[in-house]
């Protein structure tokens, strides 16, 4: 007989990449996770994972079984959550990924009172700036800032995300303040490398215009991008949720070049084909109210 605990152990080991990490996520010992995997393979009559001292790899049988196993777990979780929600309680596990700086500055403070109000929710919040694959990595949803590009995701807009072209007063005093896109091209730029391109895009009546300033620094973290701009290394195009306090305090100055950067959003997205749970919808609704529109962190708001 196939046991749900064995299916959960298998899916978690694959998502975690190791028995040790799976045991940590499941709050079990390594030996218990290994025993459940062995029982599952015995019940199925086939080997699901090749185990070596360095890594785990899926067998052909494991690859074939994984998608259905993950779907079974989702349906069990959704059924349990649905029963709880029918009783007026939001409960059960949920896993969300979010970027580091936004998570620290705004997402965490918005979520803490919600979680205190709903103590039966078991939220795992993975804070990482890399672009995770929500479906294959087992996330119920991701929260991101930027354009919505992945058509395998169903996105809910939480709020607008205005970006500010800014630099330190010291840099602008030394190098001058650009007043046009042509002048901006001649300045030193600090770029966010997780986007994969070292350019800025602006909206004009003729369409999008790309500006490629001289690269002073590329970095993959929003906090350090802001700090580099405040240190006078160059001009940065920063989300208002990062740059807003520094602009209000005068440590950064917003630059007007006659055109606005392309519009972006803070959004929550879940994999296409999944029926989002009531608790995920409740989290999204709470975040919309907490952030506001325009959001509270925008200096222009």
């Amino acid at each position: 007989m196939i046991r749900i605990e064995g299916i959960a152990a298998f899916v978690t080991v694959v998502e975690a990449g190791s028995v040790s990490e799976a045991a940590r996520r499941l709050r079990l010992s390594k030996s218990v996770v290994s025993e459940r995997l062995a029982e599952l393979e015995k019940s199925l009559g086939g080997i699901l994972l090749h185990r070596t001292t360095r890594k785990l790899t899926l067998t052909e049988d494991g690859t074939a079984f994984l998608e259905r196993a993950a779907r079974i777990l989702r349906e069990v979780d959704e059924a349990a959550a649905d029963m709880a929600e029918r009783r007026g309680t939001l409960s059960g596990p949920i896993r969300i990924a979010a970027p580091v700086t936004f998570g620290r500055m705004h997402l965490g403070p918005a979520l803490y009172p919600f979680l205190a109000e709903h103590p039966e929710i078991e939220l795992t919040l993975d804070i990482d700036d890399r672009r995770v694959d929500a479906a294959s990595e087992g996330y119920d949803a991701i929260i991101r800032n930027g354009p919505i590009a992945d058509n395998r995701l169903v996105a809910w807009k939480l709020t607008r995300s205005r970006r500010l072209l800014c630099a330190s007063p010291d840099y602008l005093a030394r190098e001058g303040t650009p007043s046009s896109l042509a002048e901006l091209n001649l300045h030193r730029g600090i770029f966010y490398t997780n986007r994969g391109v070292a350019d800025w895009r602006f909206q004009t009546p003729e369409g999008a215009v790309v500006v490629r300033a001289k690269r002073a620094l590329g970095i993959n973290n929003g906090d350090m991008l802001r700090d580099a701009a405040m240190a006078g290394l160059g001009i940065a195009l920063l989300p208002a949720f990062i740059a807003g306090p520094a602009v209000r305090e005068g440590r950064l100055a917003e630059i007007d070049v006659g055109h606005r950067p392309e519009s972006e959003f803070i959004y929550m997205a879940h994999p296409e084909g999944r029926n989002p749970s009531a608790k995920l919808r409740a989290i999204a609704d709470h975040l919309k109210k907490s952030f506001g529109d325009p959001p509270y962190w925008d200096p222009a708001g």
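Residues 91 and 119 are 8 Å apart (CA to CA). The radius of gyration is 23 Å.
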